[in-house]
TrEMBL record:
<dbReference type="Pfam" id="PF00326">
    <property type="entry name" value="Peptidase_S9"/>
</dbReference>
<dbReference type="InterPro" id="IPR050261">
    <property type="entry name" value="FrsA_esterase"/>
</dbReference>
<protein>
    <submittedName>
        <fullName>Esterase</fullName>
    </submittedName>
</protein>
<dbReference type="GO" id="GO:0006508">
    <property type="term" value="P:proteolysis"/>
</dbReference>
<keyword id="KW-0378">Hydrolase</keyword>
<feature type="domain" description="Peptidase S9 prolyl oligopeptidase catalytic">
    <location>
        <begin position="46"/>
        <end position="250"/>
    </location>
</feature>
<dbReference type="GO" id="GO:0052689">
    <property type="term" value="F:carboxylic ester hydrolase activity"/>
</dbReference>
<dbReference type="InterPro" id="IPR029058">
    <property type="entry name" value="AB_hydrolase_fold"/>
</dbReference>
<dbReference type="InterPro" id="IPR001375">
    <property type="entry name" value="Peptidase_S9_cat"/>
</dbReference>
<dbReference type="GO" id="GO:0008236">
    <property type="term" value="F:serine-type peptidase activity"/>
</dbReference>
Amino acid sequence: MILITNESIGGVPSLHVVKGGSEDKELSTIFFFHGYTSAKEHNLHIAYLLAEKGFRVILPDALHHGERQNDQNDRDLKFWEIVINSIKELEGMKEELKRRGLIDDQIGVIGTSMGAITMYGALATYDWIKTAVSFMGTAYYQAFMNAQLSIVENRGLDVESMKNHVLSQIKPFDLSEQFDKLDGRPLLIWHGKEDQVVPYPFSEKLYQELESRYQDHPQHLKFLSEERTAHKVSRKAVLSSIEWFERHLSNDEVS
């Protein structure tokens, strides 16, 4: 039996998914960040499969999403505020679970789209993350920001001022500017080749740039792409992520 609890963790509305009988144990834990305009409930099918393998899975609602959504019409302009806020909140969630005796030092992070972008920033920030999975995200914060601003330029906004402001915010979290922070940690990258929301070349370029850095442990880096696949996570991607965490995140129940 898989238990699903809606609770506040570190002040963040979250779904807490775990196998029945293990809810009070210290477990290897995976944090799952959802995509833009999505919510924590939308990734429950993946969390269920991970929990079946013995992992504790935490799915938080991002700022301005799910239970935290409000009537603001300018959420598009708050994308990077949302990403950075989630990165910062991850520390508090981890610390609360630690205080409650529910989490060990085996911690993974997975994200979809905006959630994968958040995941990359978390890797640049926290060395306690042991392994990570990206579903159609990008680690190239500045390049993606420039593409976003080119879209809103026609809305009569002061794009140059916005660019300077956002750049100062995202720079410390931009993994593409500090690949040494990865330090060989296992990373699975998945992307559909027809993705027009977060373009596929971002992930292909990332893999190519990282390949030489993983020469000593090539099994710690994996890139999966799919033909005729747009901005939607496939079942192949889901099953690959489950296998990845089984292989790279230590867990007594799955070893």
